[in-house]
Every structure is written in C-alpha cells, then in structure tokens.
Amino acid sequence: MTRTLPRLLVTGTNSGCGKTTAVCAILGLLMRRGIRVTASKCGPDYIDPMFHESVLGIPTGNLDPFFCSPDLLRCLLAETGGELSVIEGAMGYYDGTGPDGTDNSAWTVAQATRTPAVLVVNGKGASASLVAMAEGFLRFKPDSGIRGVLFSGVTPMTYATLKKLTQARFGDSLIPLGFIPKLPEDCQLASRHLGLVTAPEIADLRQLLDRIADLSRDTVDLDALIRLANEAEPLDCEVPEIPALPPVKIAVARDSAFCFYYRDTLRLFEKMGAELLPFSPLADEAVPPEADGLLLGGGYPELYAERIEENVRFRESVRRAVEGGLPTIAECGGFQVLGQSLEGCAMCGVLPHDSANTGKLVRFGYVTLTALEGGLLGASGTTLRAHEFHYYDSTENGSSFSAVKPNGRSWTCGVHTDTLYAGYPHLFLRAEPDAAESFVRACLAYHAHQRKENMT
C-alpha cells in the first residue's frame, strides 16, 4: 500500500517541555482551518491520546517501535486517515533504549515513518542558549530529521530575537515555526504520578484546549507547519492480513477507573469480528451477561478503590464470570482488581494477591514476555512484547511468564490459564495478532459452549 499523508512529528527536548500543550494547540488550529486532522502518540502512552481525542473528537493511536516493525508503524500511521496527521513524541526526542539510548525513541519513529520533526524547546530561564540547545539536537544525529523548531513559554520580544538567531545560523535547514506563549495558571494541564491526569478528569477540557488554541493563534506559524507537513514523502507498507472470524461479544470495562486501552488493539478485535460491549464498574454495572470475553484494562482503580468495594454487583459478576471460564485479559489495574484487596478495600477475590502503593516506580519499562505455561494467549514458549509503568505492587504477581528487560534484568510474572491472562504487563496486541486471535478463538469456544449449555 502506498498513501500520501502530510504529517509532522512534534517532539521535545525533554518531558515537561510543553510538547503536549503545543500538540493540542496545533491540532485545534488545524481543525479551525477545516483540515481533517488525525493524531498519534509515540511510545506506550495511554494518557496523551486521550487529550488528542478530546481536541479531535475521534480516537487516536500509538506508534511504538518496541512493539511494531517499521512496516507496521507506517501501516498504523496510514490507517489513521485524515488529510494531515500529527504525531506527538515521548520524553525527549532521542530518549529510548539500547546501547546508545536512542532505540525505540521518537527519533526512531520519525526515521521509520519518514516524518519531518518539529522540536519544542522550553524557553524558561534562557534566551540565545535555546538556539544552542536546538543546534545540539539538530547535530546529535546526522539524520536527525528535525526540520523546524517551536519555542514554548517565551514572550513575543524573546521570540523575535530567537527567530533572527535561528534564521541566521541555520537558514532553511531549521525553520522557526513560532512559539507557544506563557499560559495563565488556569490553562496549565495538571499531572500526577503517571504523567498528565486523564482527559475525563478535567472539567471543561474542551474549553480549556480551545483557550490554548486561542492564545496560540497569532504566535504559531500554522502556514509554515502545513508546508512542512506537505513535504513528507508517501508512506509505503505491506498491509498485514487479519483473519475474519465468526462474531463474538467482548465486554470492556471502561470509565475513569479503567481507561488504559490501546485503540489499535480494540480495532483489531473489531476487524476480527468482535463486537465491543463497554460497561462501567464505577456505575456498578455488571459484566454484560451476553459477553463471550472480558477486557479489564489498566487505569486508576486505586483512586476509586472504596467505590469499587461498594460496587458489589460489579465485583461478584467479575468473579462469577472469570471463575466460570469467561476468557479474560486483565492488565495492571485490572489485575489488581481481580485480587483480594486494593489499598485495603475488597476487590473481586479471583486471585490471591493484595495490592498497595509502594511510593516508587515498580519494574518500569519495556519487557519481553516468554510464556512458561501455555494458555489464553498462546502455547508455552510464546513471546510477547509488553511494558510496565506503575507505583503499585501486589503480594503475588504470578509465575506464568518470564519477563526480560532490554538491559537483561528478568523476573517471573503473570497468570496464564486456558481462559485468563492477568498481570502487570500491558500488551499491544495489534503487534501480536496471533495472541489476539487466540483470545478471540477462546471467546468463540466459550460462546459455543454457552449456547450448548442453554440448549440442554
């Protein structure tokens, strides 16, 4: 498949430099131009795509080179549709893994997708030094892919100086694209231990993001950004075949407590023939009785532990469903909720662990899982790429998988039976189609068994 898609990768010097604010401003301004725009996020981040979705009104996706081959990255980008696509980087542009620390970084995504990069440089406490910082990023790799710079948190006077310095030093090789002004306190995007707070938690988020776009309307050179996006070369990729299976229904716990789902994984299930049935544990909604499978995603169940304890109908429906053989994938927060307790509050009681806050990151980063026991997602020896990011831990994390970090550190984790995958590692199943198919086929088998039971 070959597709022409104007696009930009908006990256930063480091986390907290203002790139998410810049991306939201750019997306809002592009939409005001009447451009049908789409967005993606580099890396395994769940939260920033929620902000993109709040601006765009459509789902967005992830581009993660640890999970995906360069070809699949290009396919996922091409599948986003739209007339122009904006990719948001993760951490600093070159921050990643591997011997030199740049593998699986935003730079890797820019290289794999051949996307022009725009560097966001935070202007707090500096002026001309910001141009030196931009030059360092431009020269760090001979094929940096950085084509433009956008300054964050500067005044119009400071930007006028920065623009002249940038043009004089780099000419057309680094284009000054304007600046995001210093924003008032009520326009700041809040954060917590996993990064930004989730979009549903901010009152009047759309109005907030509209105001950020208003304040940036006369400071961001949108015409120059569009010209740069149009310079991106066509995307070429081999579209992977996805099996069309008989229809099944998969229940998805989805609300402020359970909100960490990869849109591309959910789309994959739908392409395979599944109908997704969202339900809210916080509203004490039970697992839909017609469900043939269950997804208990991550999120922030610890913030709602008391409410989940009070929601007896939800907890008992999960326990009955999982113990009754309903094929289930429970990741991180979902894994915690399957246990006996979370921060002292009663949970579903399916698994023997208790979970609590450790006050620090636990087993943070990418891992490669190898199944020590066959089960729902594949036979013994099956390998799956995953990641962990959590401050909470449990008294028993399972022993069905060997997990190995890129630096060689390893441990055992996860529960894997014929009908259950549960553990702290998050999976990007769009890049693991065999595991996804194994789950859907287990749902089909459950459906057939239930139908047979109902007929007898």
Query: Based on CA inertia axes, which overall geometry fits?
Result: elongated
Number of strands: 26
Instruction: Please identify the structural class as seen in this structure.
Output: alpha/beta
Order of strands, widest sheet: 4-3-5-2-6-7-8
Helix fraction by DSSP (H/I, runs of at least 4): 25-40%
Oligomerization status of the protein chains: single chain
Can you offer a commentary on this structure?
By secondary structure, the chain is an alpha/beta fold. Helices cover 32% and strands 27% of the residues. The chain has helices at 19-32, 47-56, 70-79, 106-113, 129-140, 156-170, 205-216, 222-229, 263-271, 305-310, 312-323, 333-337, 433-455; strands at 2-3, 7-12, 37-42, 61-63, 84-88, 117-122, 146-154, 175-181, 191-192, 195-196, 235-236, 248-253, 258-260, 274-279, 293-296, 298-299, 328-331, 341-342, 345-346, 354-371, 383-394, 401-404, 410-413, 415-416, 420-423, 426-427. Strand 22 and strand 23 (410-413) form a beta hairpin. It starts with a strand and ends with a helix. Residues 191-197 have low confidence and may be disordered.
Summary of the model, kept short:
The chain is about 30% helix and about 25% strand. It has helices at about 20-30, 45-55, 70-80, 105-115, 130-140, 155-170, 205-215, 220-230, 265-270, 305-310, 310-325, 335, 435-455; strands at about 1-5, 5-10, 35-40, 60-65, 85-90, 115-120, 145-155, 175-180, 190, 195, 235, 250-255, 260, 275-280, 295, 300, 330, 340, 345, 355-370, 385-395, 400-405, 410-415, 415, 420-425, 425. Helix 1 runs parallel beside helix 2 and helix 1 crosses helix 7 (about 205-215).
